[in-house]
Amino acid sequence: MNAPWRDRRGRFLPFKAAVLVSLLIPGALYAMWLATGELGGRPVMETIHGAGLWAIRFLLISLAITPFARALDWPALLLVRRNVGVAAACYATVHLCLFVVDQNFKVWTVISEIALRFYLTIGFAALLVLLALAVTSTDGWVKKLGRNWKRLHRLAYPLGVVALLHFYIQSKLNVSEPVFVSGLFVWLMVWRSLPEVWRRKQGIAFIGALYSGLAVVSGLATATLEFGWYGLATKVNPWRVLAANETIDRGLRPAHWVFVIAASLAVVFIARRLVRTRQPVRRVAA
To answer: Which residues contact 247 (CB under 8 A, 6 or more apart)?
Structure first.
């Protein structure tokens, strides 16, 4: 297996190397903050939360690479999908290992906690699936599993749902960040559900309508998820939460941020398509 900064032919790729370094930065920062005592009274717990958060972020980014590669006509982006997915598995593993540290290495206590607490149970199950996807991400496993490889790696989508549920429960009352991440996940899942012919169309007007529609849908879905969570899982009045999404007087809510990001992506994708259509056609000399 080639090093993660090389392509399948063994050539060094600066882009893959830069992404690899970027994937290490969050872990390096938390290690530095932990060593210098900048994480408050419970530094290990803060690091546990940080590792888990970055595991979910990298999982989401790995799922976003394919739509971004297509929308931007940037096939080289697909070269780093494996690295990002493996990074998600590594951060999730660190998340669990630090939990063991926080429990003073009492393995039976850790096992009982995972067995008795629902959010820990589903989090551990998500970790096992994520590790299975990371281990089988190599070219060798692709050949061994054949068609079953794609079936196995489609588990990344339900894995995202389980990981987000773990995030919601662990966050307790303030679920602004899980709601925000869920909204972006909805954008990805709606894109995945679109007919293949829609995703491959080249017309500027169609692309604009498609991605603008995705921005509206994902923003509304985010507000709905926030309303549903507060209504079903907490004692907070969900109608007050929903009303907060109708104004920006107190700052942007998760639904607003999801809409802004999705709308910005629509602008970027349209601009990219305009640039492509204006590029001169190269003629081959006879």
So the answer is: none
